[in-house]
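Exam revision sheet. Question 4 asks you to relate a sequence to its structure. Input first:
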Amino acid sequence: MDNEVVISVENVSKNFVLPHEKVATVKGIFTGLAKRDKSVEVQRALKDINLEIKKGEFFGIVGRNGSGKSTLLKILAGIYQPTSGEIKTNGKLVPFIELGVGFNPELTGKENVYLNGAMLGFSEKQVGAMYKDIVEFAELERFMDQKLKNYSSGMQVRLAFSMATRAKADILLVDEVLAVGDADFQRKCFSYFKKLKANNKTVIFVTHDMNAVKEYCSRAMLIDDSNIKIIGRPSDVAREYNLLFMDKASDHAKKGGGKRWGNRDVEIIDAEASTQNDKIKIKVTCKVNKNLDKLIYGLHIMSEDSSEITAVNNRMINSKDITNLKKGQKIILNWEVLNIFNDGHYKIMLTLIDDLSNTLDWYVGAASFDVIREERSTTAVLPPIKVTTKLIEK
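Answer key, structure tokens:
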């Protein structure tokens, strides 16, 4: 295997055999002695997957629920064996798939650190030397003498992740285990991954969060219906992922012939954009249809040919999530963007998701705006630029 390639997946398929038993009589239900009609169903989770991941890549794997992405990650981790095909790895691999495995809820946080450290192969002295750093990273200084069963799910994830980062590895596998943590902790985790990448470590990341894919990944892959649909630039993969939902979306936007999808636990009921001097102002009105813990809201601005110019959500610009939403409430989002756009027509896509990355409302073409300029450039944006000239005589 090429020295640069740390994981090679060759013609890998995975089938799950699901047994079905049908009892033919009422007597059989109670006695279990009646003749049973036994049959099995074969579910094909992955079909002929071929993939190479190189050293130092932050590689994203995305797909709809049931597409096979988590199955692939578990095969890479050695949790599942492929039905056919071959996996080759070059380097030590650590899965961040089921954080906290081996934790004892009846022990304190401190005791669990030492227990988990032993499971990772560290001596008691080594765990003691890193204990302070583990606790500080997890932000649990005040809680280490409490039993783990009294921790919230987020606290347990923070402690488990902090422990997992101590394992020395060349390749890390991450299956969206960070969704439980708050925005600040997620940012800290991704900063850790970026440091690993800078040190030429490899991270393979399964997620539903397209903003995370575009922000952190150097390359990505979309799996759909157990097959690879596309491998390439994160922005291209994210676009193809969104198109999977657009192709099935039955509700078309009223403005601009756009499309939208989502469960509508919170929905966008109005959106308008206007150009005001040096700013683009976008007002979005949302309605809460179901009680919700957290709302994450995003803004995408696209050129007339639907090329994405910029995409952000509130977490990326350090704005707080909206929390404790109650059915019947309305939410007003006022976005303000510095007008550095080139002369032309622009479309707006708005996104609402919860903290588990479930899509609430994804609205393509929710609004639009026009920019009229005398100055022009060959790109979509035109920041204020000044140039001075001076001719020097010989």
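Marking note for examiners. The chain has two domains: 53-242, 258-371.
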